[in-house]
Design brief:
The structure holds two protein chains of two kinds.
Chain A: H1 2-14, E1 24-25, H2 30-36, E2 39-40, E3 44-48, H3 55-68, E4 73-77, H4 84-89, E5 97-101, H5 106-119, E6 124-129, H6 134-138, H7 142-152, E7 158-163, E8 174-186, E9 191-203, E10 208-215
Parallel strand pairs in A: 3-7, 3-8, 4-5, 4-6, 6-7
Antiparallel strand pairs in A: 1-2, 8-9, 9-10
Helix pairs in contact in A: 5-7
Chain B: E1 2-8, H1 11-18, E2 22-26, E3 29-33, H2 38-41, H3 44-57, E4 61-67, H4 70-79, E5 83-85, H5 91-95, H6 107-115, H7 121-126, H8 129-148, E6 164-174, H9 177-197, E7 201-211, E8 216-227, H10 230-243, E9 250-260, H11 277-291, E10 296-301, E11 310-313, E12 332-346, E13 349-355, E14 358-373, E15 381-390, E16 395-401, E17 404-411
Parallel strand pairs in B: 4-5
Antiparallel strand pairs in B: 1-3, 1-4, 2-3, 6-9, 7-8, 7-9, 10-11, 12-13, 12-17, 13-14, 14-15, 15-16, 16-17
Helix pairs in contact in B: 1-9, 9-10, 10-11
Classes of the chains: A alpha/beta, B alpha+beta.
C-alpha cells in the first residue's frame, strides 16, 4: 500500500513535463505567417543573414504588427542604425516604440536587453546586432542568451535578435535565415523598386521557407 | 484618546503621520486625536512607543502624553519629561504635583491664587466649585476643571498641510552617494507615509541639497504616473544623483513631494500588455545611466524633408484604433555618422566605391536624386543621392553633399 502511494507520488514528480505550445503572433508578412505560423511569445527568435538580405525589413514588419496590436515594443539598437522615417512608412507606430541607441557597444545592448526583459510588460523586445561584427556578436556567451530566454519564458514578450549569423544556438526557439533572391530595378531611368527576400526556418528542424517582396517605392 | 507632543522639531508633520486631526496648541506643542490608533498599533503603550520611535527617526526631541482629554494630555506633556500615559479617571491624581503656572492663568488670577497659597494643581483641584465660582468667576472654574483633568473639548483641527516636505541637517558633510541614500530613504519614508495617510500619491519629487561650498544642487524627478513606491523613488534618486552628482559634499537635504491623487486604473481582460509605468521609469533610468540620457526614447519625426531628422521623447500614446498594415517595405540601415567614401566615375556613372568596411564595383545604380531644403534658413542642405548595388553583395545609398561623398546606409 505504502509502496503504491510512493510510486504514484514519484511518478507525478518525475514524469516529463509537457509544455503547452506557445502562442504565436503575426510577423506582419502574410507569406511568413502562412508558412511558419508566426513568432512564439515567451521565446527567443533569431533572424540572421548577410547585409541587404532583408533582415531589417522583416524586423520592421514585426515591429509594425506588434505596435498595431497596441503593444509597447523596445528596440535595442547596437549600431544606432534604425531609420525612423522608413519604419514609420512601414507602419510602425513610433509612439509605442522605445528605441535604445547603444552607439556601437554590444555590451551595453546586452545589458539594456537584459534590463528590459527583466522589467517585463513589453509585447516585443528586439536586439539588433545586424551591423555588429560577427566576432563581437559571437562574444556574447550562451549563458547570456540563456538568461535572456529565461527572462521572457512564461511571459507574453516576444524576444527577437537580429544578426549576421546565428549566435544564440540552442537558446533560440525559432531561427529564421534571410537571403536575398533578387533586386528589382525598373524604369527608363533606373529605380530601386524592391527586394525579393527568402526566409528559411532553420529551427525547429523541419525546414520551411517563404519569400516576400520588400518594396522600396509604391 | 488624545496625544500631545511638546518639544522642538517638525511636530506638526509627525502628528499628521499618525492622525488627520491635529491641533497646533502652541508653537512648541501639538495635540492629535489618537482615537482608533489602537487598531493599528495595539495598546496605548504601543501607540506611545510608535510615536516616540518615529520622533527619534525624524530627529524630533519631544515629551509625549496620552490622555482621555486633550487638555490633560497637554498639561502632562508640558509638565513631565519623556512619555506619560494618564489613566482615565485618574487625571487629577496624575497632574497633582505640577505647578500652577502650567495652566497659564491671567496675571491677576495668578496673583490672587498665590496670595491664597495655591501653587500646585492639586491645591486648585481641591477647592470647592461654588466658592471658586463666587470669587474667581468662569475663568477660575475653567482653571479648576483643567487642574482636575476634567475639561472636555474638541480639537481646533489644522487644515491638511498643502506642502509635503522634509529636511535634514547632516552632522557632517557627506560626499558619497551611499550614505546620502540612507538619508534620502529616511526622508522618503516620512513623505510617503504622510501621503499615504491622506490617500495621496506623488508625481514629482524635488530634491535640494545644500553643499559645503555654499552652493545648492537641485534635482527634480518627474514620474509618468502618481506613485507611492518608496523603493523606486530611492533608486531613481540614486541613479539621478549618480548621473548628476553634486559638486561638493552635502550638508543639508531638503526633499519635497508634489501631492496628487493616486492613479485609479483597472486593466481589462483584452487590454494589451504594457510595462508598469514606475517600473519602466526605473528600468529606463538604469539604461540611461550607461547609454546616456539622450539615447533612450521614442523617435518623433520632425516636419522637414531633411533626411534623418527626428528628436527623442518618451510618452507612450494611448491605444488608438488599428490602421491598415502596409505591405512590407524595404528598410534602410543608417550609418551614424555617415561613412566618408571615395567614388570613381566612368562616363558620368558611379563605377567603384570605397568606404570604411565597404569596397566594391558598382553593379547596378539608380539616381541621382537631387534634394535640398531649408535654403531660407541659416542651415540649408542639398544632396545628390544614388542607390547602388555593389559587387560585395549589398545595396547602399550614397550621396554627394559638401564636403564630399558619403555612404548613408545599406538597404536591408
Amino acid at each position: 500500500m505504502g509502496a503504491a502511494v510512493l510510486q504514484r507520488q514519484f511518478e507525478s514528480v518525475l514524469q516529463w513535463q509537457v509544455r503547452p505550445a506557445p502562442e504565436l503572433v503575426r510577423t506582419g508578412v502574410s507569406e511568413i505567417d502562412t508558412a511558419i505560423g508566426g513568432l512564439p511569445r515567451g521565446s527567443l527568435t533569431e533572424i540572421f543573414g548577410p547585409a541587404s538580405s532583408g533582415r531589417t525589413s522583416l524586423l520592421v514588419s514585426i515591429l509594425a504588427a506588434a505596435t498595431e496590436r497596441q503593444e509597447i515594443c523596445a528596440l535595442v539598437d547596437t549600431e544606432d542604425s534604425f531609420d525612423s522615417a522608413s519604419a514609420e512608412a512601414a507602419g510602425v507606430r513610433l509612439d509605442r516604440l522605445l528605441w535604445i541607441r547603444c552607439a556601437h557597444h554590444a555590451e551595453h545592448a546586452l545589458k539594456a536587453t537584459d534590463l528590459l526583459t527583466q522589467g517585463g510588460g513589453f509585447g516585443l523586445v528586439a536586439m539588433d546586432l545586424g551591423d555588429t561584427p560577427p566576432r563581437t556578436a559571437r562574444r556574447i556567451s550562451l549563458t547570456s542568451w540563456f538568461r535572456l530566454r529565461r527572462a521572457v519564458e512564461n511571459t507574453p514578450t516576444v524576444l527577437v535578435a537580429v544578426a549576421r549569423q546565428s549566435n544564440a544556438k540552442t537558446c533560440a526557439s525559432l531561427m529564421l535565415e534571410c537571403s536575398r533572391e533578387r533586386v528589382t530595378w525598373s524604369g527608363g531611368t533606373p529605380l530601386l523598386r524592391g527586394v525579393r527576400v527568402r526566409v528559411a526556418r532553420r529551427k525547429p528542424v523541419r525546414e520551411v521557407s517563404a519569400s516576400f517582396q520588400a518594396t522600396a517605392v509604391e | 484618546m488624545f496625544a500631545s507632543l511638546h518639544g522642538s522639531g517638525n511636530l506638526r508633520a509627525l502628528a499628521f503621520e499618525f492622525s488627520p486631526i491635529v491641533e497646533q496648541t502652541a508653537p512648541d506643542t501639538v495635540t492629535l486625536d489618537a482615537s482608533g490608533l489602537e487598531r493599528l498599533f495595539g495598546p496605548v503603550q504601543d501607540i506611545a512607543a510608535a510615536l516616540m520611535r518615529r520622533a527619534a527617526e525624524t530627529g524630533i526631541h519631544a515629551n509625549l502624553a496620552l490622555a482621555a482629554n486633550p487638555d490633560a494630555a497637554i498639561c502632562a506633556a508640558r509638565g513631565f519629561r519623556g512619555v506619560s500615559i494618564l489613566p482615565q479617571g485618574d487625571e487629577a491624581k496624575f497632574l497633582a504635583s505640577l505647578p500652577l503656572q502650567l495652566l497659564q492663568p491671567s496675571p491677576e488670577l495668578q496673583e490672587t491664587l498665590e496670595r491664597w497659597g495655591i501653587r500646585r494643581l492639586q491645591d486648585l483641584a481641591a477647592l470647592p466649585q461654588l466658592g471658586i465660582a463666587e470669587r474667581l468667576g468662569p475663568e477660575g472654574l475653567r482653571l479648576r476643571l483643567l487642574a482636575r483633568g476634567e475639561i472636555e473639548r474638541k480639537l481646533a483641527a489644522l487644515e491638511d498641510p498643502p506642502r509635503f516636505e522634509d529636511e535634514l541637517e547632516l552632522d557632517y558633510p557627506v560626499d558619497l552617494l551611499e550614505p546620502l541614500a540612507f538619508v534620502l530613504s529616511r526622508l522618503l519614508t516620512g513623505l510617503t507615509t504622510r501621503l499615504a495617510t491622506r490617500g495621496l500619491a506623488t508625481d514629482e519629487l524635488r530634491l535640494q541639497l545644500k553643499l559645503e561650498n555654499r552652493g545648492i544642487h537641485e534635482r527634480t524627478l518627474r514620474l509618468p504616473v502618481p506613485s507611492l513606491d518608496q523603493r523606486a523613488f530611492l533608486k531613481l534618486l540614486q541613479l539621478d544623483l549618480a548621473a548628476h552628482s553634486p559638486a561638493a559634499p552635502v550638508e543639508h537635504v531638503h526633499l519635497e513631494a508634489n501631492p496628487v491623487k493616486p492613479r485609479a486604473a483597472q486593466s481589462g481582460l483584452y487590454v494589451p500588455v504594457a510595462p508598469e509605468p514606475v517600473k519602466l521609469e526605473l528600468t529606463l533610468a538604469r539604461i540611461k545611466a550607461f547609454v546616456g540620457e539622450e539615447q533612450v526614447g521614442s523617435p518623433e519625426l520632425l516636419n522637414t524633408h531633411c533626411p534623418n531628422s527626428f528628436r527623442m521623447g518618451w510618452s507612450p500614446a494611448c491605444p488608438a484604433p488599428a490602421g491598415r498594415m502596409p505591405a512590407p517595405r524595404l528598410t534602410i540601415r543608417i550609418f551614424r555618422p555617415p561613412r566618408s567614401a571615395q567614388v570613381a566615375f566612368d562616363s558620368g556613372r558611379p563605377s567603384f566605391v570605397i568606404a570604411e568596411g565597404i569596397r566594391g564595383r558598382v553593379l547596378e545604380f539608380a539616381g541621382p536624386w537631387r534634394t535640398s531644403g531649408d535654403w531660407w534658413t541659416a542651415d540649408p542642405w542639398e544632396r545628390d543621392e544614388w542607390d547602388i548595388a555593389l559587387s560585395d553583395g549589398a545595396l547602399y545609398r550614397i550621396y554627394c553633399a559638401p564636403p564630399g561623398w558619403f555612404v548613408e546606409g545599406s538597404y536591408d
